[in-house]
Amino acid sequence: MVRFENVGLRYGTGPEVLRDISFELAPGSFHFLTGPTGAGKSSLLKLLYLAERPSRGLITLLGHPLSKTPRKALPAIRREIGVVFQDFRLMNHLTVFDNVALPLRLAGQDEAHVQESVTELLSWVGLKAKLDERPLRLSGGQKQLVAIARAVVTRPKLIIADEPTGNIDREMSLRIMRLFIELNKLGTTCLVATHDMVLVDRLQKPVMELYEGKLADSGWWMEGAASNAVIPAQPLMPDDLSPDF
Ligand SMILES: Nc1ncnc2c1ncn2[C@@H]1O[C@H](COP(=O)(O)OP(=O)(O)OP(=O)(O)O)[C@@H](O)[C@H]1O
Ligand SMILES: [Mg+2]
């Protein structure tokens, strides 16, 4: 699903902020990414959602070696990836509903389906009363929930979440993590960057640790041969969620 081989990243002419990063995420796996502030977590995630290109090394994403992939093929790969940004990146001129509906509409889903799945998902995260609100009128935690809903609504093959629970209370954080775990059970590969060691301890998933741009014990993360396995992408439907959410 994802393979990094001796990847390095520098911004401009600055020092390398990521060095010798090698790991593999098997299809359907779930990993946490932890490390101190400034260790390079967001930078590593940017490489995964194609916002940055590595300064050296090889990245294979969803079966595509990126250095050999034509630029025009990248948007299609990017559409298979759901991203929760550390700074949310909501569209402030769109309503909460329209923000979450956007990826479904871009994918050409019919409007009845969009209405149903967006309303159900936003109700599930407790934002039913805010469907018509603009993001600027939401609390930080509410914005984060909208960003999470937008990232998962298309049932992407890979979910990359950068501190997805940084602004929400413990109960909602656990609920959100259970959402990721439920999606993971349905086949979505998940990588979640977090400082929240209580969540990490509770969920008992493998943890990748970054220190000053290097992965601790990175050899441990090579989990076998790269896979081209393709998991069919389907929109997230409320029925997919366990009743005990
Ligand atoms: N756009 C940029 N241009 C130049 N340097 C950057 C840029 N973004 C990040 N950096 C540098 O890269 C290093 C890693 O930053 P990054 O944001 O990846 O850390 P992080 O582990 O996500 O930290 P945090 O826990 O605070 O989110 C830092 O030294 C930072 O100053
Ligand atoms: Mg960060």
Automatic annotation (TrEMBL):
Keyword Oxidoreductase recorded: no
Domain ABC transporter intervals: 2-237
InterPro entries: AAA+_ATPase, ABC_transporter-like_ATP-bd, ABC_transporter-like_CS, ABC_transpr_LolD-like, Cell_div_FtsE, P-loop_NTPase
Pfam families on file: ABC_tran (PF00005)
Keywords from the UniProt entry: ATP-binding, Cell cycle, Cell division, Cell membrane, Membrane, Nucleotide-binding
GO molecular function, one term: transmembrane transporter activity
Cell location: Cell inner membrane; Cell membrane
GO cellular component: plasma membrane
Membrane topology (UniProt): Peripheral membrane protein
Protein name in the entry: Cell division ATP-binding protein FtsE
Species assigned in the record: Nitrospirillum amazonense
